[in-house]
């Protein structure tokens, strides 16, 4: 992976935040062997240069909810407007215009079945310029979510990674039930995953002890994880591709594990539909994408076919930022 405009310390900081987005700057500084002020200054600079944001994300699986990937074919003059409308919704992520501007793709995290059906069966079906709607439920995650792509850049040494990694999650076997106080915390952390205890207390009206206790519980159960949003171009990745793989059922697990190990893959999951694995990949250029498809995907036993689509524009990653 080639880096552009980022030095080794920048990359270490990015990976450190991926490991633990709420790690105090003095802790990161101690492990990296620099001053607190240096870490804080680099963090502020990265917010401007690569649009770095640390966001608190809810793992829908821990709440007994499903995530869907929508593919919306539309007329060329309707893609941008549709993508913008979807990006503004709080229950969407990774909204992109693909396929030469005639298709919009996004991840959808409906809180209830009613919300899912309202969007899929009613609103989108009546949206002008939408030609077809294809919805795919994610069945199993191979890579992505709590384990972000920055974990693959190998900027940190094994010892540094061990020192900066938070305690392991103990998700249990049953879905977690959220209370109103939890929802209030998650709403604030969804806008700023590094919000301080004081800020969380002021924003939610909860006592400090309650904030700390509930925050610790949300993280320990895996309901809340911290993810890093940034512009991939600055790490040398000009091409963002979506791969839809049709894999023989007996090979699903092996192919999924192989994809998870590839440095190009930032997300991979088994899904419903004719293509039963979806993956999001990053590449320096189209030539690198070709090499990846021919050498790595082509070498996987059980892959019967691959559909590839390039993201022409990423309208939303984890959070929507109008005007970008």
Structural overview:
The chain starts with 7 loop residues before the first helix and ends in an 8-residue tail after the last strand. The longest helix is centred in the N-terminal third of the chain and has 14 residues, at 36-49. The protein has helices at 8-19, 25-32, 36-49, 79-87, 113-123, 158-164, 180-189, 197-204, 208-220, 252-261, 286-297, and strands at 53-58, 68-74, 92-98, 103-108, 130-143, 224-229, 239-247, 265-271, 277-283, 303-316. It has an eight-stranded antiparallel β-barrel. It has a two-stranded antiparallel ribbon with strand order 1-6. Helices cover 35% and strands 26% of the residues. The protein is built from eleven helices and ten strands. With 324 residues, the protein is of the alpha+beta class.
Number of helices: 11
Low-confidence stretches: none
Bin the strand percentage. Answer: 25-35%
- What is the overall shape? globular
Q: What class do helices, strands and sheet pairing give?
A: alpha+beta
Q: Secondary-structure element sequence?
A: HHHEEHEEHEHHHHEEHEEHE
Separation of the first and last Cα atoms: 25 Å
Helix percentage: 25-40%
Multimer state = single chain
Total beta strands: 10
- Report on the biggest sheet: 8 strands, antiparallel, barrel
Mean pLDDT level:
92
| C-alpha Rg (nearest Å) | 20 Å
């Amino acid at each position: 992976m080639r880096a552009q405009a980022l030095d080794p310390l920048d990359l270490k900081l990015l990976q450190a935040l991926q490991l633990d987005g709420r790690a105090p700057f003095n802790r990161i500084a101690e492990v990296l062997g620099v001053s607190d002020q240096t870490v804080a200054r680099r963090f502020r600079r990265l917010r401007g240069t690569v649009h770095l944001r640390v966001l608190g994300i809810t793992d829908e699986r821990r709440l007994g909810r499903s995530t869907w990937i929508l593919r919306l074919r539309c007329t060329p003059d309707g893609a941008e407007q549709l993508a913008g409308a979807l990006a503004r919704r709080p229950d969407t992520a990774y909204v992109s215009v693909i396929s030469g501007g005639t298709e919009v793709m996004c991840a959808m995290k409906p809180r209830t079945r009613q919300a899912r059906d309202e969007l899929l069966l009613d609103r989108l079906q009546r949206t002008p310029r939408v030609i077809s709607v294809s919805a795919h439920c994610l069945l199993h995650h191979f890579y992505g979510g709590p384990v972000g792509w920055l974990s693959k850049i190998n900027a940190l040494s094994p010892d540094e990674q061990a020192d900066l990694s938070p305690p392991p999650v103990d998700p249990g076997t049953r879905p977690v039930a959220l209370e109103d106080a939890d929802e209030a915390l998650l709403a604030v952390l969804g806008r700023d995953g590094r919000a301080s205890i004081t800020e969380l207390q002021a924003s939610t009206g909860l006592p400090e002890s309650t904030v700390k206790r509930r925050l610790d519980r949300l993280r320990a159960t895996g309901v809340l994880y911290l993810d890093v949003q940034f512009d991939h171009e600055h790490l040398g990745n000009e091409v963002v591709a979506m791969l839809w793989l049709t894999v023989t059922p007996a090979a699903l697990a092996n192919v999924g594990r192989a994809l998870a190990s590839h440095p190009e893959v930032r997300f991979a999951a088994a899904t419903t539909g004719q293509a039963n694995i979806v993956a999001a990949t990053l590449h320096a250029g189209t030539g690198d994408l070709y090499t990846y498809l021919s050498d790595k995907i082509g070498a996987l036993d059980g892959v019967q076919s691959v559909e590839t689509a390039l993201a022409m524009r990423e309208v939303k990653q984890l959070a929507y930022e109008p005007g970008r």
